[in-house]
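Weekly modeling sync, notes
Attendees: AB, CL, MP (scribe)

Item 1: holo prediction request
CL wants a bound-state model with pyridoxal-5'-phosphate before deciding which constructs to order. AB pointed out that an apo prediction alone won't tell us much about the pocket. Agreed to run with the ligand included and paste results into these notes for async review.

Input as submitted:
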Amino acid sequence: MSTGLRKAFSNAKAENRPAFVTFITAGYPHPNLTVDILLSLQRGGADVIELGIPFTDPLADGPTIQYSNTVSLKYGTDMTMSLQMVRDARARGLTVPVVFMGYYNPVLAYGEEKLVKDCKDAGVNGYIMVDLPPEESHSFRNLCLKHGMSYVPLIAPSTTNSRIPLLTEVSDAFIYVVSRLGVTGAKKEVNKELPEMMNRIKQFTNVPLAIGFGVSTREHFDLVGSHGDGVVIGSRIITVIREAVEAGKDVPQVVEQYCSEVCGRKAVELAAASTQPQADLEVTDAAGQGVVAVGEGKKLKSFYELATYFGDFGGAFVPEVLVDCLTQLERVFIDCTNDPAFKAEFESYYDYIARPSRLQLADRMTQEAGGANIWLKREDLNHTGSHKINNAVGQILLAKRLGKKRIIAETGAGQHGVATATVCAKFGMECVVYMGEEDCRRQGLNVFRMRMLGATVVPVSSGSRTLKDAINEAMRDWVTNVSTTHYLVGSAIGPHPFPMIVRHFQSVIGNEAKRQLQEKRGKLPDVVMACVGGGSNAIGMFHPFVEDKSVRIIGVEAGGSGVNTDRHSATLSKGTPGVLHGTRTYLLQDEKGQIIETHSVSAGLDYPGVGPEHSYLKDSGRAEYRVADDAQALIGFRKLTQLEGIIPALESSHALYHALEVAKELPKDKDIVVCLSGRGDKDMHTVAEVLPELGPKIGWDLRF
Ligand SMILES: Cc1ncc(COP(=O)(O)O)c(C=O)c1O
C-alpha cells in the first residue's frame, strides 16, 4: 500500500476536513500542459490526484471525460507518456500522491507487472481500474501488493451489503465510492440517498471513503465531504480546463483558482501544511504490508455461480455498479434453464418466430460447386428476417422474470434492434435502441422499422459511429438505469453471463439442424458454417456440434477491403487477446491496447471484438475461422440470389462464399450446413451503393 495515500487521508482528517481528490485526463488538453496542471492542482489544495489514462472506449464515462480521452489520444498520449508526466512533475516538486485511473486493456497491452514496477519508479501511488471488479483483479492486485502500490476498489450505489465486505477486503489506502448510478459527469445536485448509502458502507469498514461522481461546486464539496473522508472532482475540472482553453486563458492558473475556491484552502494554509511531515515523497512501504492479507495467488470469492470463462476467454470485466445486476441475471438464467415451464414458455413463441426454421438443400448452389451438398438453415425466414429474434424472445422472457420493464439494446445492421423493438411491442415494454450514426445511415430502413414498432432509436456519434460505439452507449445507459432496465445484448459478446445466455437461446439453430439433417440424410453434417460478427448465429449453429468431433466447424469473418489493409473486421484472424465490453477475447487493437476502427460492407459484422467462446474454439483448434472480403461476400450474395432465388443478408453472404469454396473441396456424399442468418431486404441500398466499386471486381454489371 502507499504511505503517501494513507497520509493524505490521515492529514486531512487531522485537520478536520475531507481530503480533496482531483481528476484530470493525462494529455488533455495537450500533453505539454499536463505537468503544469498537475502542479496547479497541488497548489489549489489537492490532497490526491487521479490521472486518467485515455482509452478509446471509456464505457463508464460521460461526454466530458470521453471528449478529453479523444483529444488526448489524438495527441498520442499513452502509458509511457503518462508515466513520464508523473516523473517530470515529481522532479518539479509534486509531492501529492498520484493514482492512475483507467480501463484494463491499455494496462494489458503495456504488461501488468512492467506497469506496476514502472508506476512505482515514476512515483505513482495507486491504481483505479474502472472495469476490473475483484473477481477479475486478483492478478493485478497481487502485483500491486508485491510491489507496494495501492489498488483502489470502487463501491457503487447498487453494491449490496453482501458484496461490500469483499470490496473492503481488497482495499488498503482508500475506497472510491460512486455516489450515484450513472456515468461520470458534473451534476446540479448531490444524490439525496448518499447519507443512507454511506452509513451502510461504514458498517463494514474503517478504510477512508472518497466520494465521487457529480460533484462540482463548493456547496457540493462541503455537503459530500460531511459524509465521507474525501471528495472527488473530475468532470468539472475537465470542463474548467476546456473553458479556459476556449477563452485563451492560462489553464494551470484557472485550474488552481477553481480548486482553491472549491476546497476552500488558502495558499497560507497550504504553505503551513507543506512544512509538516505529510504526504512525503516516499511512495510505498515495504511490499505486502498493507491491510490486505491476500497472499499471492489467492483468489477471492466469486459472486458468480457458473464458470465465467471459456478457457482463457470470457469473464466479467465491468464497473462495480453492474456486478450485482449480472449476478442476479445469472441466477434467473440458471433458474429458467432448470425450469421446464420456462422452456415451454419459450417454445410457445415458436409460432410467432416461425420455428422450426427450414433446412433446405440449395441444389443449384451445390451443382455450381460440384462437390458436397450445401444445405441452408433458413433463419432468414424467421419473423423480422434474421436469427436475432430467437435471442430477443428468450431474453425478454428473462427480463420479465427479473421484473424489468425497460429494455435497451445496441444494434449494428439493425436486425437485433428490430427484433428487440418487435418483442418489446409484443410484451408491452419500453424500448431504447442505440445505433451508430454510420449504421443508421447504412440501415435507414431498419431505423424506420424500429421507430414504427414504438422504439426510440438513439444515434451514437462517438468513436467510429458503428456497433462498438453503440455498445458503449448502451452500457452507459445501463450503468445509469440498472435497477429498472434490462440490457438485451444482441450477440454472444459482453460480460458473463451474456455469451452463455445468447448461446443458449441461439442453440435452437444447431439443435434443429442436427435433427433435420438426420431426418433428411440419416447422418451428422460433415461441416457446419456461419458468419461471425459478435458470433451469435455462429455459436448457435456450432454449439450443439462441438462434441461431435467428426463435424468440421467453420466460421467466416468479414475481411472488408482485405485483411492486409487497415479496413477489415477479421478479429479472430488478425486480432490479439484483450479486454473490451466486459469480456476477454480477441480484439482488433493497436500495440497500446487502443481499439481500432473496423470496416465491413455488412454493418452486422463491423465489430472489433468477437464472442469469447469463439476465441476459445479458435485457440483450442476445435473451430476454423476464415475470412471473406467485401467483394467475396458480394459473390456469395449474387450466387444465392441468382441460383436459388433467395436474397441473403450481406452478413450471411460471407458464409455463403466460403460454403461454395468448401463444397468444391469435398466429395459429393458430404454435407455442409450453412446458417443463412438473415434476408437481404435491408441491404438493397448498400448493395446499390457498393456495386459501382465492387461490381467490376467480380464481373457484375448491374446498371439498369
Ligand atoms: C443477418 C445477420 N447475420 C449475422 C449478424 C452478425 O451477428 P452475429 O455474429 O451475432 O450472428 C447480424 C448482425 O446484425 C445480422 O443481422
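Recorded for review: The chain has three domains: 3-263, 309-340+385-497, 358-381+498-698.
Action items: CL to compare against the apo run; MP to circulate these notes.
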